[in-house]
Amino acid sequence: xxxxxxxxxxxxxxxxxxxxxxxxxxxxxxxxxxxxxxxxxxxxxxxxxxxxxxxxxxxxxxxxxxxxxxxxxxxxxxxxxxxxxxxxxxxxxxxxxxxxxxxxxxxxxxxxxxxxxxxxxxxxxxxxxxxxxxxxxxxxxxxxxxxxxxxxxxxxxxxxxxxxxxxxxxxxxxxxxxxxxxxxxxxxxxxxxxxxxxxxxxxxxxxxxxxxxxxxxxxxxxxxxxxxxxxxxxxxxxxxxxxxxxxxxxxxxxxxxxxxxxxxxxxxxxxxxxxxxxxxxxxxxxxxxxxxxxxxxxxxxxxxxxxxxxxxxxxxxxxxxxxxxxxxxxxxxxxxxxxxxxxxxxxxxxxxxxxxxxxxxxxxxxxxxxxxxxxxxxxxxxxxxxxxxxxxxxxxxxxxxxxxxxxxxxxxxxxxxxxxxxxxxxxxxxxxxxxxxxxxxxxxxxxxxxxxxxxxxxxxxxxxxxxxxxxxxxxxxxxxxxxxxxxxxxxxxxxxxxxxxxxxxxxxxxxxxxxxxxxxxxxxxxxxxxxxxxxxxxxxxxxxxxxxxxxxxxxxxxxxxxxxxxxxxxxxxxxxxxxxxxxxxxxxxxxxxxxxxxxxxxxxxxxxxxxxxxxxxxxxxxxxxxxxxxxxxxxxxxxxxxxxxxxxxxxxxxxxxxx
Amino acid sequence: xxxxxxxxxxxxxxxxxxxxxxxxxxxxxxxxxxxxxxxxxxxxxxxxxxxxxxxxxxxxxxxxxxxxxxxxxxxxxxxxxxxxxxxxxxxxxxxxxxxxxxxxxxxxxxxxxxxxxxxxxxxxxxxxxxxxxxxxxxxxxxxxxxxxxxxxxxxxxxxxxxxxxxxxxxxxxxxxxxxxxxxxxxxxxxxxxxxxxxxxxxxxxxxxxxxxxxxxxxxxxxxxxxxxxxxxxxxxxxxxxxxxxxxxxxxxxxxxxxxxxxxxxxxxxxxxxxxxxxxxxxxxxxxxxxxxxxxxxxxxxxxxxxxxxxxxxxxxxxxxxxxxxxxxxxxxxxxxxxxxxxxxxxxxxxxxxxxxxxxxxxxxxxxxxxxxxxxxxxxxxxxxxxxxxxxxxxxxxxxxxxxxxxxxxx
Amino acid sequence: xxxxxxxxxxxxxxxxxxxxxxxxxxxxxxxxxxxxxxxxxxxxxxxxxxxxxxxxxxxxxxxxxxxxxxxxxxxxxxxxxxxxxxxxxxxxxxxxxxxx
Amino acid sequence: xxxxxxxxxxxxxxxxxxxxxxxxxxxxxxxxxxxxxxxxxxxxxxxxxxxxxxxxxxxxxxxxxxxxxxxxxxxxxxxxxxxxxxxxxxxxxxxxxxxxxxxxxxxxxxxxxxxxxxxxxxxxxxxxxxxxxxxxxxxxxxxxxxxxxxxxxxxxxxxxxxxxxxx
Lengths: 659, 410, 100, 167
What we know:
The structure holds four protein chains of four kinds.
Chain B: H1 2-7, H2 9-43, H3 59-69, H4 80-99, E1 108-110, E2 113-115, H5 127-148, H6 152-183, H7 188-194, H8 212-225, H9 237-240, H10 250-275, H11 293-309, H12 315-337, H13 339-368, H14 374-407
Antiparallel strand pairs in B: 1-2
Helix pairs in contact in B: 2-3, 2-13, 3-10, 4-5, 4-10, 5-6, 6-7, 6-8, 6-14, 8-10, 8-14, 10-13, 11-12
Chain C: H1 4-24, H2 28-53, H3 57-87
Helix pairs in contact in C: 1-2, 2-3
Chain D: H1 3-24, H2 28-48, H3 52-77, H4 93-120, H5 128-137, H6 141-162
Helix pairs in contact in D: 1-2, 2-3
């Protein structure tokens, strides 16, 4: 199967094609069969491939399937790559994706455009797999743009809702900005290495001989990394390009789960991790990544505190978790970042799906103030969601605990930019953890506990169908045990299997697993983290269960901050004023009125007018009078004779004929 | 004076020849009309002309005088130049064409010079081509006459004749190609000699046998070319009141008349030369006594003329006819007595007799056949005659090829 | 023996006259005739050269030219008849609508 | 002034006069007649040049067929005196100028080439007809066949053109 790796991405594409072309006429069952079948098959193929990969002794697998672009010595091919990092990503994508497909069959059952939805979803799977399997930046970029496209399509799935289509456009355009940076980064890399193939770059002698660009002395690599990171920011919703993700919640919940929580938004993290060697050569870039990640994490968490829309809360938590991942990468703990990526994929997907289940239960209501006391009615959903919440809040032994913990540790240990920087990062990380546990439990309490605030008669609360529950349970299990790979290291009974597994990839650019006194430090830090989380829960409990109304009074007492948070710091308005308006003005007045109408249209019409004028001029020779034509014939003959006569060897042809 | 003679002898001789030929042709034409009228009359069981002179022999003379002295009006609104040009053109071309015909193979020696029978020497390289060239121009006479008369019937006649002549000229030329292939030359003399390549075969060596198809095509086309019955549409007196020469009278009309009869003679010459061995005798060369045939004809004929003359009471009958008879008889006798003269006579004799036969056929046809309808004429020319002649060419060339292959001849 | 130049000059003169007629005659048939005149002039040059060079190609070309002229006459006169039918005139200057 | 030269000048004069009268004549049929004169004169010149076959073909085809066609058409359309319009501005003085220029160029070009001909001029009596037939059916056989196709096409075209449209 490793030899036929291309089958893994191809299957979802086939599914998408089949559903997209013929699905319209088919009943939902067949569409399900195609969609789930194709993704499930590709999941199995991925498993098989991974197995072979292990059997082959985990040597990096790299195969050129066919050449796409060949210009001079520049070659871009459909080359697929399989190493430990890819293994993690592929399994996450296909596995979680498959589960979400199954969930969606239940969730979307009542929706129109059923086949369309699944066709888009499969398309997304295809591009995502291309992204993670790609062996060079260009092919990766193909997947990159592809997921952007399918995300656009799925956000705007309810295209009849203006807000939905606007959200789609917003996502697309904001991503463009990041993609632009990404492309520039690629060009820069190509200029530096004359290739864009991962292996070629990472093992190239040029890179070996490349000086580490110390902080404050930026060079090519720094700029390349920063540009690539711009792209990552766009895709993974980091400051300042995070604005699209909350709006993306307009899409159907499974989409939010799959694309905007589990897989696509982590692409940025993946790219940074993939080009970790370059980042390792550019400490400045690393620092930037770390700071941006940390800032995003904190920033988004604060916003998440006051949101009342259940999905919005989850969206902001996603943003902040992504911030964590970048923080990890920034401090050089790539494996930790990927680890958190995986666990996050599990519990965040679970959260979204559960939220979807809740929404499903209360009949499309998303405002948490209209919920409450649901825990009895929808027990399974409640339990699974609680698991996920504990996981994200970072309680042992749930998955989030281990991943988040290792991130905080490496942040604490960070030397890059001085110790103080490390401490600052750690501090913000810890604060974010506090906030996270607070707003997550706020969500739980508002949704499931307290007295019910919805109208009994209008809403008939019911548990979701099995197709939705089964994935929830599977994911719940995963988000419990997902983190145990790192457990032994923490308990001192063995190495960190995950880090060890990724060692061949990241070995060059990160410190080995924690040893000796480091472990003690780690334990203390873990303890601190748990305590902060507990504090968060307490506060949430005190504010929202004990004394309802306390929250409102608090909000009143500090109105300015509250409104600011509620309006997300007016970032959207700021962008609208600073960027969108001027852009609009420029487009209308400069590009449209001046360049397009005056310039291009002017040129085109001018040419047309000129042609007409010439025609008018020449038309008079077409008098229709044969005698005039005769004269013109004579003129032509005259010209020919003149050429024959005055040509330097004009006489020659004539003589040649005669001899 | 003598020097003048010696220097320009050729010129003088040619001029004399021309005068002689002109005289002969005109006379023959005149008596051809008499002959025609007689034959047609007998075909229609009438007497024909018999008032003027015995057997109406002086009729042509009378006609000629009539032409000369008739008034010659020129219709109003004619294009003068062309109107006068047309008959001249017709006559001139007719006479030119006859001037190109050789009447005998070998020259007479007179005044120390070889003098050929016929204006041009018999071995003219492009003889037949030249003939066709001249006959091709013949159409102008008719067409222009029809046009210039500024009158409806002549115009129609002219149109008809030009169309008809163009159409049949193709067939005419095509049908001759077979003969040319056999002879391998345009030269009339060579063509005739090619028919004598087996002297002992006599008339079976003539082209008419291998070229029977070509001969028919040629003869029909030739009749059409000369606007004779049954192809005389240009001058269909019953439809077009004499067609293109309606507006011509007296001597201009006579010119057309003469031109037509002359071209008849030319065509007869061509027929006999191309297909019937020209001046060759029909008998095998070994039959020398066949040489006495001319005398054998002349002597009895002369005697009959004498006997016939005595039946008339007139001075004419008493004197002239017997005189002519005796001349003819003595001529026959002389031929018997002078063998080499007799030998020289043979060629022209045969040629002339063949021509006579063809002229008779012409008249015969006129006496018997009705006229074509115009569309029939065209259909016949284009759809039957032309394809036939082309087929003839193809067959002939294949036959020659086969002959080369198997007998290795030529 | 006549020098070749004489023939060539003659053919040039004829050609020039042909061109002149081609432009300055109004009657469409006459114009057509002037084309024939030009062709003849060219033929003369051909034959003259062929005789001068002792090669027969020239004469063969003349034959081709004549064939072409014949074809041209057939078609051209057909067209002329059509024009005369539809326009009721033979003056080319009156036939200046580029349609029937 | 040999006899040949005399004949040449007579024929040349005939040709030129014919051409000129083609231009001067008002009535198309007179022009046609003048053209016939030119052609016959040219045939005579061909004979003078020893090209008997071409001469004969010239008279038979040009004189006997093509010009007859012209006369026929003139008669059929009953063409009258040519009316003297001068709508075309080009075909005025500029046309005349151009014609003169063209004639000059032709003359000059040929003159340039003729002296070389005079150099290579070797007047051999050519076995005209036989040689032509050899060339026509050996060297030039394909062009020859092509001309036959041309004729066929022309015949068809003329037929189509001349038939009245059934209405």
